[in-house]
C-alpha cells in the first residue's frame, strides 16, 4: 500500500473524530494529513511527507486556530441569572438603607441595600441596580435625593 493512501486514511479518521469533538484541532490535523497525502501522491519520500504534515499541522494550530477562535469569540456576551439584572432599574417598595430594604426588580420583589452606607432611599424612588450580592440587590438612586 502506498504511503499516500495511509495519509488519506489518517485524514479521514481525524476528520471523523473532529465531527464528534468539535475542537477544530483534529480538523486541522486532518488537513495536514491531506498535505502529507498530496506529497506522497507526487512521489516524494516519506521523510518529506512527514515534514510537510508537521509544517501544515504547526501552521494550522499556531496560525489558523487562533484566528478562528478570535473570530468566534466576538459574538454578543449574554448575561443570565442574577448578573443579567445589574444595570436595570427598580422601584423601592420599602425604605432602603445600608442594611435592609425592598425593591421591585423585573417584576419580582428583591431584598435590597444601598451602596452608600449613609444613604436612606425612601419608598417610591427609582433606583439602578449596581450589583447583586447573593439574593440582595445593591442599589443607588437614579435622581439625587431631596
TrEMBL record:
Broad class of the protein's primary localization: membrane
GO biological process: proteolysis
Residue span(s) of domain NfeD-like C-terminal: 82-141
Any one Pfam family match given in the protein's UniProt record, by short name: NfeD
Transmembrane segments annotated in the record for this chain: 31-64
Protein name: Membrane protein implicated in regulation of membrane protease activity
Gene Ontology CC: one annotated term: plasma membrane
Keyword terms: Hydrolase, Membrane, Protease, Transmembrane, Transmembrane helix
Domain of life, source organism: Bacteria
InterPro entries listed in its UniProt record: Membrane_assoc_protease (IPR052165), NA-bd_OB-fold (IPR012340), NfeD-like_C (IPR002810)
Localization in the cell: Membrane
Gene3D superfamilies in the cross-refs: Nucleic acid-binding proteins (2.40.50.140)
Membrane protein topology class: Multi-pass membrane protein
GO molecular function, one term: peptidase activity
Record keyword Kinase present: no
Amino acid at each position: 500500500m502506498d504511503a499516500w493512501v495511509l495519509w488519506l486514511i489518517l485524514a479521514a479518521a481525524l476528520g471523523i473524530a473532529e465531527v464528534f469533538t468539535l475542537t477544530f484541532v483534529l480538523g486541522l490535523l486532518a488537513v495536514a494529513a491531506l498535505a502529507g497525502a498530496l506529497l506522497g501522491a507526487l512521489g516524494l519520500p516519506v521523510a518529506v511527507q512527514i515534514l510537510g504534515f508537521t509544517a501544515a499541522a504547526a501552521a494550522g494550530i499556531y496560525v489558523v486556530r487562533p484566528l478562528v477562535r478570535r473570530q468566534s469569540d466576538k459574538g454578543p456576551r449574554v448575561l443570565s441569572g442574577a448578573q443579567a439584572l445589574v444595570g436595570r432599574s427598580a422601584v423601592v417598595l420599602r425604605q432602603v438603607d445600608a442594611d435592609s430594604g425592598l425593591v421591585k426588580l423585573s417584576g419580582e420583589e428583591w431584598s435590597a441595600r444601598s451602596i452608600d452606607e449613609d444613604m436612606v432611599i425612601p419608598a417610591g424612588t427609582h433606583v439602578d441596580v449596581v450589583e447583586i450580592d447573593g439574593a440582595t440587590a445593591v442599589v443607588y438612586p437614579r435622581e439625587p435625593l431631596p
